[in-house]
Specification:
By secondary structure, the chain is of the alpha/beta class. The chain is built from 15 helices and 20 strands. The two termini are 16 Å apart. The structure holds flavin-adenine dinucleotide. Flavin-adenine dinucleotide binds next to helix 1, strand 15, strand 19 and helix 15.
Length: 467
């Protein structure tokens, strides 16, 4: 991308939140407006937000995002623009399996977030009745989405009706659990599977819509059939520091923004301790804090955004990183563990098998716990939670040497926004209310994609609108 350079007089951009969205926005703003002042306010005591890494037996090991979807190219492009293209790594294996009460089954190829494009290849992971139920979609009337005024439905409601419960409980739930820590029966079809939803009216069938969405994706990628996922050798969480330096931004840690008001020529933010706040002037303000925090800031300047933002709840999670003695494990890149198993963990990533740079003397594994509305296990103290996760993982992977050499637990309160039914309408309402205020923008995981590449894309979209 060639930077577009502005000739307008210097201004001060204040970004609220030093997660990937805020930092990518700061970087992009600097490319376009080299003379502006950029201040990033961060409530916490470090930069990166959900990007976080630990030292696990001498390896930088991500405990937030660990894989970047390369098919949304903004993350790879940004890493290359930072001069770090040589640190990108592709997986050694991407074969994941689903754990079910009867055993472990490889994830079938060619699904759209678990939604099959045909009944072929589903034997085993579904019962014979379950496969027959999928096949029987062809006998149903064409789909009509009765989503009320929002035109949206829950993924689970549609798929249970059209393809049966097994597809939801055994295929889709594990994948949605992995991406959103959410539940198929509550998540929005339009927001979590937009490509499939777009194909439904034309095809009239879920299977055909999944096939069309998959094929359209393949066509738009053309011959550039590169890796689906990548990561960064010293951790995705190595990016924030590089971004801050490249953006030439002043980052103020432990400095939450808790008030925002318009002035005759811009904005004033009240920042720092609520009892003794500082006032910070800004020409342009970009909010990238999670939805509930952003809602609190918008009451005075964009009240129409407050209720829709409050309608975006978050799931909390914990990630346990574990190093075991090297031993053979036959689980590909990892396991998806849906609620039907009754297990504590919802996923296991075998990092030392998945990523070549992590292969070596030890078996490196991470596992996550916690789903939306099912966070009770997170109340356990660290040592208890870790012991329970280690036991579950050792059992699932069939470890012969199950005593870990090292473990780390990282808790993520408010980890992942839930795109519930009606989410697209909520996002549109927030965007409209914010767009009415010149110089104000909002972006982040709460809106059009929770993945890091989607957050970066949303940061650029916001910058386009503000510039
Ligand atoms: C455990 C886990 C695993 C994940 N795995 C992946 C993965 O493999 N691949 C992938 O692509 N994505 C993954 N994600 C999702 C992705 O990491 C996040 O959606 C993304 O990083 C969110 O970025 P953000 O900048 O929008 O928000 P955040 O990272 O939440 O940043 C917002 C920042 O705003 C700050 N803040 C809040 N309130 C205020 C305030 N009032 N004033 C100032 N600052 C404030 C917060 O402290 C925070 O630093 C994962 C997420 C989690 C939690």
């Amino acid at each position: 991308m060639t930077p577009r350079r502005s000739t307008a007089p210097p201004r001060r951009l204040v970004v609220v939140g030093a997660g990937i969205t805020g930092l990518a926005a700061a970087f992009e703003w600097r490319r376009r407006r080299p003379d502006d002042e950029i201040v990033v306010l961060e409530a916490g005591d470090r930069i990166g937000g959900k990007l976080h890494r630990v030292d696990l037996v001498g390896h930088w090991y991500d405990t937030g995002p660990e894989a970047l979807l390369a098919r949304v190219p903004e993350a790879v492009q940004l890493i290359e623009a930072l001069g770090l293209g040589d640190r990108l790594v592709v997986p050694a294996t991407t074969q994941a399996s689903v754990v079910l009460p009867e055993g472990r089954f490889p994830l079938p190829a060619g699904t759209v977030l678990g939604v099959p494009a045909s009944a072929d290849g589903l034997e085993g992971i579904l019962s014979p009745d379950g496969v027959a139920r999928v096949r029987a979609e062809a006998d149903l009337q064409p789909v009509t989405l009765d989503g009320g005024s929002s035109g949206d439905v829950a993924v689970g409601a549609l798929l249970r009706e059209r393809l049966g419960d097994e597809v939801v409980d055994r295929l889709v739930e594990p994948l949605l659990g992995g991406v959103y820590a959410g539940r198929a029966d509550e998540l929005s079809l339009a927001a979590t599977m937009p490509a499939l939803a777009a194909q439904l009216p034309g095809t009239g069938s879920v299977l055909a819509a999944a096939a069309a969405a998959r094929d359209a994706g393949a066509r738009s990628r053309g011959d550039a059939d590169g890796p689906v996922f990548v990561t960064v050798t010293d951790g995705i969480a190595s990016l924030p520091a590089v971004l801050v330096a490249a953006a030439g931004a002043v980052v103020r840690l432990r400095t939450p923004a808790h008030g925002l008001r318009r002035t005759s020529n811009g904005f004033e933010l009240s920042v720092g301790p609520a009892a003794a706040p500082d006032i910070l002037r800004a020409d342009v303000v970009l909010l990238t804090a999670p939805a509930p925090k952003a809602a609190r800031l918008l009451g005075e300047v964009a009240p129409g955004a407050v209720e829709p933002l409050r309608g975006i709840p978050y799931a909390s999670m914990a990630v346990v990183a574990m190093a075991f003695p090297a031993q053979p494990v036959d689980a590909g890149s990892g396991l998806l563990v849906p609620p039907v198993t009754g297990r504590l963990v919802k996923g296991v990533t075998v990092s030392s098998a998945k990523w070549p740079h992590l292969a070596g003397e030890t078996l490196l594994v991470r596992s996550s716990v916690g789903r939306f509305r099912d966070e009770s296990e997170l109340q356990r103290p660290d040592d208890e939670l870790t012991a329970a996760v280690v036991a579950d993982v050792a059992d699932l992977l069939g470890l012969s040497r199950p005593r870990p050499l090292e473990t780390r637990v990282v808790r993520w309160g408010g980890a992942l926004p839930q795109y519930l039914v009606g989410h697209p309408a909520r996002v549109a309402a927030v965007r409209t209310a914010v767009a009415e205020v010149p110089g104000l923008g909002i972006a982040g995981a709460a809106f059009e994609g929770v993945g890091v590449p989607a957050c970066i894309r949303d940061a650029y979209r916001a910058i386009d609108a503000l510039e």
